[in-house]
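TL;DR need structure tokens for one chain.
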Amino acid sequence: MNPRAHLHRVSQAALRAYRARTFRLTPRLRVRTPAQALDFVEERGFVFFWAIEGVDLPSLWTAVAGDRPVASEHDDPGHVTWGWKDSLLSQRRWFYAKLLRGKSMMVSLKTVPHFYAVSERVGDLDDYEVAYEAGRLTREARAVAHVLHEHGAQHTVALRRLAHLSSEASKGRFDKALSDLQRGLWVLPVGVVEAGAWRYAFVYELVDRWFPVIARQAQRIPRTGAQRHLAQLVLDSVGVAHASALRGLFRWPHHELDAALGTLVTCGLAYRLDDGSWATARLLDLPRRRSRS
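>> reply
TL;DR here they are.
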């Protein structure tokens, strides 16, 4: 065993310095253009759109605006992220959806198949019916997915009408349906149009119709391999994470998360610290054994 492999802790100074690089917090590393935003997402695998309270993960906002709260002023320079996000939705350059914690994320196209491989999807356009029959989707979610399946991409105003969820009383159930369908990799936003009272509405489409290659790519990735890869991406981004934070993020069964982390340790890609947290080998600057996977 590497004599340096057993570490008691990581200093807060080392962790702050590491995240300053991976979160792009230093002025020299700030994201200033849409092309740099794409590179940032590609580099990290996935990032949140906004910084999420209580979640230590990179976000596009902090990479552009620095480590500060999201500004309420519409003319704040950090809000260029809105335009970048909207303009790139229809270009299929990244995957934008609420995959984790019900929050909007940008995911690299290389990473999405790993999320798909961990999901309940089986690769059929109408497999939402299976999930509904099994009790994993609500009636409203089934209705929304069915509208998209039958009518193609729709903006939210038309989607609510066609799914018979236009009333004010049904708004919460409609929003939950969209969130559940995004988390389950059934639907995603693919554009923005001027519609509704705010003259701003997302256009939604079925994931497998918009990105038909993802399901085929996911078929070649075992669930365990996908979980290992996603867990590694998080550790490589944050440096150190507690298992409870990872469980709250991914919502995998405990034994599956433990297996993924254990494999990373076996491969020398991560280390368990004495306080029960997990650290990436990139932070610790330790040699890594070749992965056999």
